[in-house]
């Protein structure tokens, strides 16, 4: 077992213990909790990062992708990407201005998208090299928080967690974008 597996096992054990202890408290009954509009919360949190986000119907996805790619000259499209991509010339990820991917999970509470590099997402290089990253997130892929995301992901797959465009700050706290990933993140949310 490597360090990553040990950390994940410890986190899962702590969550299981907390659930067990909660159910054993006498006189405490879990009230049904009305979940917020997860898709709406996700859109709001993603926009808080300064990300261009568009919520649309399935029939509008191709147009939303084309709009998100309007300023790109070339685009990398990974194998298994389920939507048509028109406009920019096709390219490999190392030379493309932009990339379009699907995601494994979206997290409403944090506005984070998670790629596990399955079909439609490509290898990790797809999410790191192009200047523009367009993510297509289906509403049924959005979970409330990080614990639900961890529970829904395969711990043996590589993962990339993205919350806003790539950014860092120098010693004077001047923000610099695009240092170790895309300068611009654009998210298309498809209502399920």
Automatic annotation (TrEMBL):
<dbReference type="Pfam" id="PF02589">
    <property type="entry name" value="LUD_dom"/>
</dbReference>
<dbReference type="InterPro" id="IPR037171">
    <property type="entry name" value="NagB/RpiA_transferase-like"/>
</dbReference>
<dbReference type="InterPro" id="IPR003741">
    <property type="entry name" value="LUD_dom"/>
</dbReference>
<protein>
    <submittedName>
        <fullName>L-lactate dehydrogenase complex protein LldG</fullName>
    </submittedName>
</protein>
<feature type="domain" description="LUD">
    <location>
        <begin position="95"/>
        <end position="190"/>
    </location>
</feature>
<dbReference type="InterPro" id="IPR024185">
    <property type="entry name" value="FTHF_cligase-like_sf"/>
</dbReference>
């Amino acid at each position: 077992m490597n360090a990553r597996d040990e950390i994940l096992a410890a986190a899962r054990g702590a969550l299981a213990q907390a659930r067990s202890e909660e159910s054993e408290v006498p006189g405490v009954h879990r009230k049904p909790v009305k979940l917020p509009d997860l898709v709406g919360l996700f859109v709001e949190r993603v926009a808080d990062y300064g990300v261009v986000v568009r919520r649309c119907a399935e029939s509008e996805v191709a147009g939303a992708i084309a709009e998100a790619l309007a300023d790109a000259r070339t685009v990398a499209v990974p194998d298994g990407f389920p939507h048509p991509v028109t406009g920019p010339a096709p390219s490999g990820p190392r030379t493309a201005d932009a990339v379009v991917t699907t995601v494994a999970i979206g997290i409403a509470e944090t506005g984070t998208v998670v790629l596990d590099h399955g079909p439609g997402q490509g290898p990790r290089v797809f999410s790191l090299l192009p200047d523009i990253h367009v993510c297509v997130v289906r509403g049924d892929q959005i979970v409330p928080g990080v614990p639900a995301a961890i529970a829904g992901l395969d711990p043996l797959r590589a993962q990339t967690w993205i919350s806003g465009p790539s950014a860092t700050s120098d010693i004077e706290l001047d923000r610099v974008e695009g240092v170790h990933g895309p300068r611009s993140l654009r998210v298309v949310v498809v209502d399920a």
